[in-house]
Amino acid sequence: MDSILGHYYGLENCSFKTLEGYDSINFKVTTNSGTFVLKKYPYAKKTLAILQAEDAVASKLLQIQHLHFPKSIPTVENLSFAIAGDFIYRLLPFIEGEFLAEVAKDDKLQRSFGASLAHIDKTLEGHFSAVISAKETLWDLKHFPNNSQYLEAIPDPKDQNLVRYFFLQFQEHIIPIQHVLRKSVIHNDANDWNILTTNGEVTGVIDFGDMCHSWLINELAIGLTYIMMGEEHPLAIATTVVSAYNQVLPLQKVELDALYYLIAARLCTSVCNSAHTKKQKPDSDYITISEQPAWDLLRKWLRINPILAKDEFRIVCNFKETEKHTVAHQLQRRNKTISSALSLSYSKPIQMSRSAFQFMYDTDGNTILDAYNNIMQVGHCHPRVVKAGQTTMARLNTNTRYVYEELLSYSEKLLSKFPSQLNKVFFVNSGSAASDLAMRIAKNHTRKKKVMVLEHGYHGNTQNGIDISHYKYNHKGGKGKAEYILQTPMPKVYGSGFDTELTAGIYYSDLTKKQITEEHGNIAAFIAEPIVGCGGQVPLAKNYLKEVYPKIREQGGICISDEVQVGFGRLGSHFWGYEMYEVVPDMVILGKPMGNGHPIGAVVTTSEIAHSFDNGMEFFSSFGGNPVSCAIGEAVLDVIEEDQLQAHALEVGTYLKNQLMTLKEDYSAIGDVRGSGLFLGVEMIRTDGSPDTDLAQTIKNNLRENLILVSTDGPYDNVLKIKPPLYFNKSNSRELIDQLEIILNKTIKIDNFKQIN
Ligand code: PMP
């Protein structure tokens, strides 16, 4: 090295220190005549051309008075580089200052950062370099989708899917507008180890190795990701930087609107490449230095409503916010076309615009934690499920009168989740269609007419569905029990007066068995949910099903488990609800979580029952079992397995239930905490033990004000229902508990106050 410096640069008595580098070996060189950086690259014509292009850019940038840039120092022969042996050597001035990564990023520095990037980009406006234009790098956000090749290197499948989600958003939001985004030569890597500061202002920018000809806005997207890392309020920092940039180089609305997803794209590029590099070079700290902060910021970024980000960026650049209809206006429109028989949640209805995993984004810019939606089993807009739907829909959609792979593959996979005797499936489009069909099949098979149902049960909205739903026929607007229905009490433990699950189980099963006996063999089917959702998340008392199922079968009926709410791993301990009670039903109905929001339902039963249904009348459903629905259903099963969501439901559900139990010790208004996995109920009571509907409603509405969704149910509507998408995690559970506690504290204090006065 000494000889290179001496021979080519006339520098003597040098001392060296190795510096970190990406695609070159770098040394800090100290001599009597100054400090330099010497870079050593393996010789290649292409490298030489790129270094020349970098120097041309640096020369241009040196017009910017207050910023320093590394431009090659010529050799004694006035050449830009020294070429010796198989290497290219390049000497650069050592730019003094503290790295952005090492200093506090206050408002002044944020603004200086934004303005500096803008000065660079403004200076490079119109700069043309064929070499730079020809560069293709995975770090160029225009090529972001190519990073998907590294997805599988991310060890945790949930993390992979977070990244997949943003790949999907890129396709939706960026690809369609790419042709209108301004293009320019940009530095393309304003990370905090490439930015130098002095006295709280940016004074230098180094490492132009990632330069490319890309969308101008990417400069800012990239810089922003680094300045936001580790900060509590990333969006506030982003808006400051954007505003400062805009003052020097005005941004376009379309660029600002793209920024949210471009920032996410840069973070995803970073975590994909870190994961890939870690696999290749497990010992390299330098390359993966920002991996953890990038993950942290990516998770934080997901919690920021994209509408909020878009509007904040627009506002600081003097553009109008996105136009939105007020909720009041939308309600007016809704009332014109939608019957008031359809209810709205909350006294203050929410206008939703987007969602992601356990979060929902409203049109006002709020991010709402969803602790309620069990339809979105594997998370809102789970990218694997969305993709399955998109690709299949673009390829083939038809019906079961034809042979296609999706139906076969999905049926096999779904049935593999059941014991061997449950080996036939009928696909329909909803839980209601499934329960309706179940009734037809059961009556046809048994040649009997009566159906036994649990009080407070709900099974569907068809006429059959209403007939078998005590929750409907026995409530407001209901016409009462149909003649062929036998209703039996919900075998609850809490509130039953029995001390143990066992004694409650004996009491209720004896009662039901007596009713069955009295029917003298007329019961076609007994239908129950393993945990009665509409009844207030009530698990069936111990041994109840074990006693009742044989009695139903003895008199020639079949036993149906309605798994519409609880199925598909939500309970944590078991994949299906009936498994909790060590019974196997003759028929199972499925819906809600089955398609993660896509309308699909099914009846699963034995060969014998299915065979008897083939009585000459064709069973046909136009949509049931279509390729798109099957592909989606299969993706849901795959995700549950790959993302280990059943185990996750067990872990998070146990944690949440324990936290709720602890809360119950402190607040006598919580009468009971029950359920399993991420299917929980919290029963609110008054001091005399009677149901406290008002309190449950207050809590539900207050949680909504605090941007958390839960619902209420049960005969007195006094049970908080918690059944979130399975991506809901311990930290989300903590948020829910903390908010619940705040509300309970507040409400109870007000109650005491009322009592005192
Ligand atoms: N069974 C149960 C237990 C349900 O909760 C529901 C819906 N809430 C249904 C059946 C009917 O399903 P769908 O709304 O898909 O028709």
Topology:
Elements: H1 2-9, E1 15-19, E2 25-31, E3 34-42, H2 45-61, E4 82-84, E5 87-93, E6 98-99, H3 107-124, H4 130-134, H5 157-173, E7 183-186, E8 195-198, E9 201-205, E10 212-215, H6 217-228, H7 234-248, H8 253-280, H9 291-302, H10 306-316, H11 327-337, E11 352-356, E12 359-362, E13 367-370, H12 383-395, H13 405-415, E14 424-428, H14 431-446, E15 450-454, H15 463-467, H16 470-473, E16 485-488, H17 501-518, E17 523-528, E18 531-532, E19 538-539, H18 544-554, E20 558-562, E21 587-590, E22 601-605, H19 607-613, H20 627-642, H21 645-666, E23 670-676, E24 679-684, H22 693-705, E25 708-709, E26 711-713, E27 719-722, H23 730-756
Parallel strand pairs: 13-25, 15-16, 15-17, 17-20, 20-21
Antiparallel strand pairs: 1-2, 2-3, 3-5, 4-5, 6-8, 7-10, 8-9, 11-12, 12-13, 14-22, 18-19, 21-22, 23-24, 24-27, 26-27
Helix pairs in contact: 3-6, 3-7, 5-8, 6-7, 6-8, 7-10, 8-9, 8-10, 12-20, 13-20, 14-19, 17-18, 21-23, 22-23
The structure holds 4'-deoxy-4'-aminopyridoxal-5'-phosphate (PMP).
4'-deoxy-4'-aminopyridoxal-5'-phosphate binds next to helix 14.
Explain what the structure shows:
This protein has 757 residues and is of the alpha+beta class. It has 23 helices and 27 strands. α3 packs across α7. It is elongated. The N and C termini lie far apart (87 Å). The structure holds 4'-deoxy-4'-aminopyridoxal-5'-phosphate. 4'-deoxy-4'-aminopyridoxal-5'-phosphate is lined by residues 430-432, 435, 458-461, 529, 533, 562, 564-565, 591-592, 601.
